[in-house]
Amino acid sequence: MTHFPRAFRRLPALILASGLLVAGCGGGGDIDNQLAFRIIQAVPDAPLVNILVDGVAFRSAVDYKGGTGFTYVTPRTYRFGIEALLPGDDELILDESVPLAAGSEFTVIAVGKVADESQGSLIIQNPAEEIPDGNTRLQFVHAAPDTPPVDVYLTPAGDDLTDAELVEPLSFDLPPPGRRLVPPAAYVIRVTPAGDPGTVLYDSGPLAALRNRDDLLVMLVKNTAAGSAPVSLVINDRFSNFEALDTNTPTELRVVNLSPDAPALDVIGDPGTVTFPEVPFGSESNLAGIALDTANDRALVVDNRQGTVLAVDLASGARTLLSGASVPDAANPLLGPAGIVVDAANNRALVTDKSAAAVVAVDLATGARTLFSSDFEPDGVNSFFGPTGIVRDDANNRALVMDNGRRALIGVDLATGARTVVSASGAPDTANLFVGSNGLTLDPANGRALVVDNRLDSVLAVNLTTGARTVLSGPTTPDAVNPFTGPVGIALDADNARALVVDTRLQATLAVNLQTGARTVLSKSGTPDAVNPFSGPAAIAIDSAAGRALVVDNRQDAVVAVDLATGARSILSAGNAPAGLPFLGVTAYEEARPDNYNLRAERTAAPDSANPLFSVTAGLGIGQRTTLFATGLLATLNGQVAVDNTRPVATEGKLRLLHAGPAAGTVDVYILAPGTDIADEAPTFTNLVLTTISGHLAFEPGNYTVTFAKAGTKEVLATSPDIAAAGGTAHTVILRDEVRVDENSDGKPASVLLLDDLAG
Predict the structure, then answer these.
(1) pLDDT by 10-residue block (mean), the chain, 760 residues
(2) Do the Cβ atoms of 259 and 601 come closer than 8 Å?
(3) Second CATH level (architecture) for the domain 432-459+468-574
(4) What gap in Å lies between CA 301 and CA 342, rounded to an integer?
(5) How far, in Å, CA of 288 to CA of 292, rounded?
(6) Which CATH superfamily is domain 285-424 in?
(7) Could you check whether 1-130 and 432-459+468-574 share the same CATH topology?
(8) What pTM does this model have?
């Protein structure tokens, strides 16, 4: 039997008194003869727990970030317990008696981590007292392990943090400050590293207005949802908990093709909100950025999904792999490349890597990769959270990087890799804040950077000296003619005094006048004609010598040349045949904006949005991770949507089962130690039919094999390889057919596909 680590280590309780006089109690009754307590679970890698009071379950199956409101009781000594819900036998891991004094309110917070046995309890004692009329009462607590000291700001929306009043400095290792009173109003809560107001780690966005005599406990906890924000807030209003995720938290979706006779698939998400574009989830490539390497007569294109840099000959369109997973070696792999710029003076390209939160240098001759700027190079100052667009600013010997995670424009010294904040919330002010910025270009003649923001549907101009932001072109600036609906990439066409913006929802390239911001259509289906229309334009570069713009198009897996004078389109370079998502193909988790989506699958080789192979509606919630499985045979192809419970729990390995093998019929499942004969074993699950999927189930850490057998028999259909279900892991185990190459194929023998659900 594998030993379980304890979910909480009993540490001396820390009692904190606020020093306020007892004046009254909103709970009613005689406060001299009453007290109140609440209990909150803030250990990010703990299992579900039962909360016990005097040996009786007070709350059952409490998850991370869960807990209770205040309960009023008479003063005496109470016995508190926490029972971890472990695979197999549950374990009482906290059992102690605590005398609770009258006229007080006690908050018990489980804090720390299981993995390093740093877990313990924090007990905050406050006097029970009435909140004066015309006030809201707040208390802030740092309960996020591994997060360094922070500053917390409570401000009206849009206020500059540089001059804002600091609400609280917080540290995980120090007692939290006492309660404070603020006027009821609408506020934004922002969290920054201690002493660094220009770096926002968390932004709540506008909260619901705090009401008169609200009484809120605001806890900073580790973010275990999707997105790059390291923390979120758990707020207790005396009655219950609710979580406030960072306002920029995305949703994440991956796609798995399990249909043995379906063609290669593209999966497209059509959002219910019309203000942002369709999201492609299913193709094998994801062309994200392009730059001209004129010295070598080529364009360099980054593929986000493949983690590669491709060189495209400007004359022939021939493609060669400059840098990839093993080219020239495996050092410093590109995990999620997003943008690229050529730094010819240093014989390198600089590639932003959103997943690695870094800028990687790629040697133009060999493709060798070195880490140029990250948390480790040269230091951790002004770290990246989600770098996307990049451009050279030669006059200042730096690169400019748009970081969508931080919503900041960051300068990177071309010699050292050191980072400075050029423009962000509070730098220099809060006017025209970045919201969903990605692509950028430099307009040196006007001393500014131009940034496209696909949530504002705007081009923002950023002063290179002051960092001040103005709207050059937006929904009503200078007018409403040819508005953006999904701008993603931008390049400067200096010869024509304009910027060119690719809009993925319009499937167009728009020209923006550099003086007025007026927009005109340069190239779109029907402009100047319908030849080689865009289907997923994503990034753009200017090839002035050839009088053209080069646009990478994801849906076509192509580089499209656009004549700068006429807008006519021609294909410079395209894949020999779109590969799409083949049988057993698995995409990475891809970020999108939370919304209700219609997810449709199309044949990659012959896309037809009007007649998809399947279509399914799914709500992709904020912070949620979801998998879409394409299951069944082509004639009845099905899209199965499953929410992924992938929070790592130190005391359990998680396994999820999916029956996706049409040839197998109804099956029984045996989950056993490796080498165990199923002959004398009872099945773990019985009578699973095609498309049955379980949730993520908790198993004691150890090695397992999963065997699928014909229902009611011991006839083995397929057995998985050994699965190391260690604490903190999550896997999906899938029964699947062999590929059906023609109508005579029967899909046999069955086999098992194993997915690592934490691999990203």
Answers:
(1) 24 29 34 80 92 90 94 90 78 75 91 86 92 96 94 86 83 93 93 88 89 96 91 96 92 94 90 68 78 97 90 92 89 92 97 92 96 91 91 97 90 97 90 89 97 92 96 94 93 96 92 97 93 90 97 88 97 74 87 89 86 95 96 96 94 96 97 95 97 95 96 97 93 96 92 88
(2) no
(3) 6 Propeller (2.120)
(4) 11
(5) 14
(6) TolB, C-terminal domain (2.120.10.30)
(7) no
(8) 0.71
